[in-house]
Amino acid sequence: MSDPYGDIDFDEITENTGLAPDEIKCLKVCFDLFDTKKVEFLSADDLGEIMRAMGFRPTEEELKELLLEIDEDGSGEIEFGEFSQLCATFLVEDPDMETMKRELKDAFRIYDKEGLGYITTETLRGLIGELLAPLTEEE
Q1: Cα–Cα dist 12/129, whole Å
Q2: CA separation for the pair 113, 42 (Å, rounded)
Q3: What is the pLDDT along the chain (139 residues), one digit of tens a residue?
Q4: Rg, Å, the chain Cα set
Q5: Which of these, 58, 70, 114, 138, has the minimum number of CB atoms within 10 Å of its CB?
Q6: Secondary element (H or E) of residue 23
Q7: How far is CA 107 from CA 24, 65, 102, 113, in A?
């Protein structure tokens, strides 16, 4: 059986994206799942599906802009290197501390309905249960 990663230039992709080899291998598996025709590229039409699978809801205009940004050779096709760069922007991009604080405060305000500056343990328990898994009494 041939090496599924044999044709990947890990050094080049790492240099362009900051991704580690294990992350690149994981992206290759994802790329291959989207490359249902096994043609070694994804079409512009696949881009919307990929973005939705990653939890985003881009408009058609946003998709066009994104394709222009990542389709380096202008082929209208997304090769694995381009796919890696697209994914890396979501994997590597860390929001700055001020943005994170603001987003946490905004999220907190949603659950601090009375504006008291705190949420009850029951509210916190419910949130954790929704987002992760229900907590036991001990937890």
Answers
A1: 42
A2: 45
A3: 678 788 899 999 999 988 999 999 989 988 888 888 889 999 877 888 888 877 778 888 888 888 888 888 888 889 999 999 888 877 765 666 777 777 777 777 777 778 888 888 888 777 777 767 776 777 7
A4: 20
A5: 138
A6: helix 21-34
A7: 33, 29, 9, 11
